[in-house]
């Protein structure tokens, strides 16, 4: 098997996983069901309930669009750097707004670290793929 092909398959898996995770996070808890925890995060930042609901839905749309970018740009390291930055930023926001979320069974730390590490791995794979394509 071609070395590039063997690197491309795990990269493709990471791309699809990140796309699905972002689309799910944008659609299910923010738009479809409007989870109370999501709404509470916005309210803790000083938004009224109605404005918090709008902000939550808008952030859901942004997350869906961001997730779709992983389907479109298959070897864009910049997208993965944005993902890492976003995961760190969202973790810090939750830590600042209400640190108790980090003690829950399903908490932002678990998801955010996993998604950031997927992007770190993808960056390494992309760099290796680019290196392989210049050596042939």
TL;DR of this structure?
This protein has 136 residues and is mainly alpha-helical. It contains five helices and no strands.
Outline the structure in words.
The protein contains five helices and no strands. The model has no long low-confidence stretch (mean pLDDT 94). The protein has one domain. The two termini are 15 Å apart. The chain has helices at residues 3-32, 36-44, 49-72, 77-97, 108-135. Helix 1 packs antiparallel against helix 3 (49-72), helix 1 packs antiparallel against helix 5 and helix 4 (77-97) packs antiparallel against helix 5. The chain is elongated and about 55 Å long. With 136 residues, the protein is mostly helical. This is DoxX-like family protein. The chain crosses the membrane at residues 14-33, 54-73, 79-97, 109-126. It comes from Acinetobacter celticus. Keywords: Membrane, Transmembrane, Transmembrane helix. It holds the Pfam family DoxX_3.
Provide key terms for this protein.
single chain; 136 residues; mainly alpha; 5 helices
Radius of gyration: 17 Å
Counting DSSP E segments of at least 2 residues, the number of strands comes to: 0
What helical percentage do the residues reach?
A: over 70%
Q: Which overall shape is indicated by the principal axes computed on the Cα atoms? A: elongated
Chain-averaged pLDDT = 94
Please indicate the percent range of residues in DSSP E strands (runs of 2 or more).
under 5%
How would you characterize the largest beta sheet? Answer: none
């Amino acid at each position: 098997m071609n070395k590039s092909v063997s690197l491309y398959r795990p990269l493709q898996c990471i791309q699809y996983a990140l796309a699905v995770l972002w689309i799910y996070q944008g659609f299910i808890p923010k738009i479809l069901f409007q989870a109370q925890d999501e709404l509470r995060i916005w309210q803790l930042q000083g938004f009224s309930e109605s404005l918090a609901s709008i902000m939550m839905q808008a952030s859901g749309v942004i997350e869906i669009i961001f997730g779709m970018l992983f389907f479109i740009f298959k070897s864009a390291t910049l997208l993965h750097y944005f993902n890492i930055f976003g995961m760190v930023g969202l973790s810090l926001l939750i830590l600042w707004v209400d640190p108790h979320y980090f003690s829950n069974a399903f908490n932002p730390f678990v998801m955010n670290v996993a998604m950031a590490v997927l992007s770190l791995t993808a960056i390494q794979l992309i760099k290796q793929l680019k290196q392989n394509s210049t050596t042939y």
